Amino acid sequence: MPIYQIGPKRLVVGAHYGLKEWIIQRVTAIVMVVFTIVLLADYCITGSATYEGWAALFSNQFMKLLTLLFFISLFYHAWIGIRDIWMDYIKPVSIRLTLQVLTVLYLVACAAYAVQILWKV
């Protein structure tokens, strides 16, 4: 990807600009779909929507890890989408940076809370 220096600013050009984020969003979406299918399959097989059924499902270490992967994918997917919205529509740099920092703090707090919930079961 060629990067040209024009005065004090960089001009980023090339066909691959943003491709990594696009691919990451697709991969995280696939992880979330797989998790949803696993949950639906478990529900269709066991038919249990009680607290005991959910507690038994999430007491399994594999399911905890799959759920954690789901939440990490969800938060990273959300970060890319929200970051792009801030970059596209919020032009003042100070406001955009503030919103991005608040978004990151919120998503990290949600991830920490998800870990706490998962390992309580």
UniProtKB/TrEMBL annotation:
List the source organism: Polynucleobacter aenigmaticus
Compartment(s): Cell inner membrane
Which residues are recorded as binding heme?
77
Relate the protein's function as given in its record: Membrane-anchoring subunit of succinate dehydrogenase (SDH).
Q: Which GO terms describe its biological process?
A: cytochrome complex assembly; tricarboxylic acid cycle
Q: Its domain of life?
A: Bacteria
What GO MF terms are annotated?
electron transfer activity; heme binding; metal ion binding
User: What cellular-component terms does GO give this entry?
Assistant: plasma membrane
Which InterPro entries does the record match to this protein? SQR/QFR_C/D, Succ_DH_anchor, SuccDH_FuR_B_TM-su
Q: Does the keyword Cell membrane apply?
A: yes
What pathway does the UniProt record associate with this protein? Answer: Carbohydrate metabolism; tricarboxylic acid cycle
Q: Any transmembrane segments, and where?
A: 27-50, 62-82, 94-119
The record's principal subcellular location, in a coarse class, is: membrane
Cofactor binding, note field: The heme is bound between the two transmembrane subunits.
Residues annotated for a ubiquinone binding in this entry: 89
The protein in question is named Succinate dehydrogenase hydrophobic membrane anchor subunit
